[in-house]
Design a protein that fits this description.
Elements: H1 23-30, E1 43-48, H2 60-63, H3 72-89, E2 92-95, E3 113-116, E4 119-122, H4 133-144, E5 148-151, E6 163-167, E7 170-175, H5 181-193, E8 197-202, E9 214-218, E10 221-224, H6 231-239, E11 243-246, H7 250-255, E12 262-265, E13 268-272, H8 276-284, E14 288-292, H9 304-307, E15 309-313
Parallel strand pairs: 1-2, 4-5, 7-8, 10-11, 13-14
Antiparallel strand pairs: 1-15, 3-4, 6-7, 9-10, 12-13
The structure holds arginine.
Arginine binds near residues 111, 211 and 306.
Protein name: Amidinotransferase
GO biological process, one term: L-arginine deiminase pathway
GO molecular function, one term: arginine deiminase activity
Length: about 325
């Protein structure tokens, strides 16, 4: 044996091993209790923008509002009425507190964030007069502990209402004027990573988002505007066991937003007031329908689904 006057201890192995949990397992502990993989499961938390200074003065044509003037106090009251329905039902209502003063469309929160089981995908609006709204949504999400998985970047365009959950493993994402190929690919990457199959839908030339054309009522029933939804998408929904209800009135779908409702829980929805034919069809099919007057919000060419970003369902 060599005489070793200077024996040096071996370098020890690693002692601090990584915590090998998934993001979904961790989210509650390090962020908050958020996550969505359904358009209908029990509504637990939402993000909304109560119209602030931005609604007081704008050029309707530039921001894609109708030219009837908005009653500022009434739009705020109607927005509060909707929020109260959610909170009375037991959902937590969070707000985007700050916003640019030149962005009246910021009330349409769904367009700015698409929520997944692991957190939010932050949108990048297609319309120039909306770009930048998302910065204040990011601020609000960070404050309440909703992780932001990606912020649509590069040459991508994507708005949250171009996504629709079918079930935990299935999502429809639509391209058109509010979501281009690059935005679509960025969303698809995130969803596929979570084990979600993405079905592509093409928006008709006359429509910007999915929610005015097709909206799930429960986990096996969906309302569609048949004339504007692609065959392949409906075929997929039927094969997954969905019953298809066809909206009976084009006027209601297009003018009074009969398809733009919010499910509080499966088979129980809040519908914009003034859609009698749609309401009758839904009730005949056993749907519990509550209505709310959103005449002022409608002047922004959007309705209930558009103003409600889901943060937690089920
Ligand atoms: N999810 C919706 N359908 N949003 C409607 C948004 C309407 C808004 N004026 C816009 O053009 O962006």
């Amino acid at each position: 044996m060599l005489e070793n006057k200077f024996d040096i201890d071996a370098i020890p192995g690693e002692r601090w091993f990584p915590k090998e949990t998934t993001f979904t397992e961790d989210i509650k502990e390090y962020w908050g209790d958020y996550g969505v993989c359904s358009e209908v499961d029990t509504l637990k938390a939402v993000l909304m923008r109560r119209p602030g200074k931005e609604i007081e003065n704008f050029n309707a044509e530039e921001v894609r509002f109708s030219d009837e003037p908005v009653d500022v106090e009434l739009i705020r009251k109607q927005h509060d009425d909707v929020a109260k329905i959610y909170s009375d039902f037991g959902a937590k209502v969070f707000y985007v507190d700050e916003q640019r003063e030149d962005r009246p469309n910021a009330v349409f929160c769904r367009d700015l964030v698409f929520m997944t089981p692991e957190g939010a995908i932050l949108a990048r609006p297609g319309m120039a007069a909306r770009r930048g709204e998302e910065r204040y949504v990011a601020q609000a999400l960070a404050k309440i502990g909703v992780p932001i998985l990606t912020s649509i970047a590069g040459d991508g365009i994507f708005e949250g209402a171009c996504g629709m959950w079918v079930d935990r493993h299935t999502c429809v994402v639509s391209t058109g004027s509010r979501c281009n190929k690059s935005g679509y690919d960025q969303v698809k990457y995130q969803l596929e990573r979570m084990g979600v199959e993405v079905y592509h839908m093409q928006q008709p030339y006359s429509n910007i988002h999915i929610d005015g054309l097709m909206n799930p009522i429960s986990n096996d029933m969906v309302l569609i505007h048949a004339g504007q939804v692609p065959y392949d998408i409906i075929d997929m929904l039927k094969k997954k066991g969905y019953k298809i209800l066809e909206a009976p009135s084009r006027t209601e779908v297009r003018e009074t937003f009969g398809c733009n409702f919010v499910a509080l829980e499966p088979g129980h929805i809040v519908l914009p007031d003034g859609n009698p034919r749609t309401q009758e069809l839904l009730e005949q099919n056993g749907v519990k329908v509550e209505t709310v007057d959103i005449s002022e919000i409608r002047k922004g060419k959007g309705a209930l689904h558009c103003i409600t970003a889901y943060l937690k369902r089920g």
